[in-house]
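Hi team,

As requested, here is the filled-out complex form for the adenosine-5'-diphosphate run. I kept the field names the same as last time so the parser does not choke. Let me know if anything looks off before we queue the next batch.

— J.
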Amino acid sequence: MSTTSTTEPTAGAPALDRRPPALELDKLTCRFGELTAVGNVSLTVPEGSRFGIIGPNGAGKTTLFNLLSGELRPTSGTVALFGKDVSKLSPPQRVQLGLGRTFQVVRVFNMLTVRENLTLALSGLSRSKLQLFRPWRTYRAQQARAEELAASFGLGDRLELIAGELSHGELRELEVMLALATEPKVLLLDEPAAGLSPAERVDILALLSRLSKELTVVMIEHDMQVLRSAVDWVAVLDHGELVTQGPTLEVQRHPAVRELYLGSAAHQGGEHDGASA
Ligand SMILES: Nc1ncnc2c1ncn2[C@@H]1O[C@H](COP(=O)(O)OP(=O)(O)O)[C@@H](O)[C@H]1O
Ligand SMILES: [Mg+2]
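And here is what came back:
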């Protein structure tokens, strides 16, 4: 596969270019022993953009997210959030600065209800430490906000359901809501549509389209249809390296991308020029 470095941004970039960066990755590198999971990746994510990250399994996408959210520290290179170097900050410190994320594998409390999951995430925001045996009804402000959040995402009638009984699609939606509870300015979504049925995909896309335009969204996603409707800029990783980046439709047509995704959904609708990003 082509690992030739064609990392120059494609011409015709939208006005996003002129927005200040929400995230700046500078020569970001993460090694696990001999393996370079992320190698020398430099990227700028403008405020308010919808930014996609694609690449084959093992390309380093999740590792990159872990470097952004602080679960991992870089071997070298830096991450800046709104101009501040956060490379050495812990995940909670980065949350305080406006970073929110979801995980490739859904992380909710399966034994708790949707309401309780949301209430917990919201209590994290107000920083009143969760007391394990504090009665739920005393979390009044959070309860109200939980109801508001669930209603705004069409899960209002699901509040009393045990999370473990939700469909996979509803779980993904709940996860996005949990990430939104901390009121992030930058939201990282790791494969939000993975494993979803076509109908569930439509639901999660609808949810994503309702997110505030001010919110910067970075999304790892394999599904080209999801990417086309959810992001306007795509960066391609392979073997930890940035292969190319550019407007979604242009990147889809990039020879290296077609090669990486040959046989997958990538080339379906490649001629779909009408769709605007
Ligand atoms: N904690 C870790 N320790 C060692 N190797 C890891 C670790 N996390 C990821 N890797 C390796 O780094 C590479 C990139 O993994 P990952 O970032 O999960 O890829 P992707 O999300 O693109 O599928 C893979 O080869 C994976 O096995
Ligand atoms: Mg991954």
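Two things worth flagging: Residues 168-181 form the longest helix (14 residues). The pocket of magnesium ion (ligand 2) is lined by residues 61-62, 104 (CB under 6 Å).

Thanks,
J.
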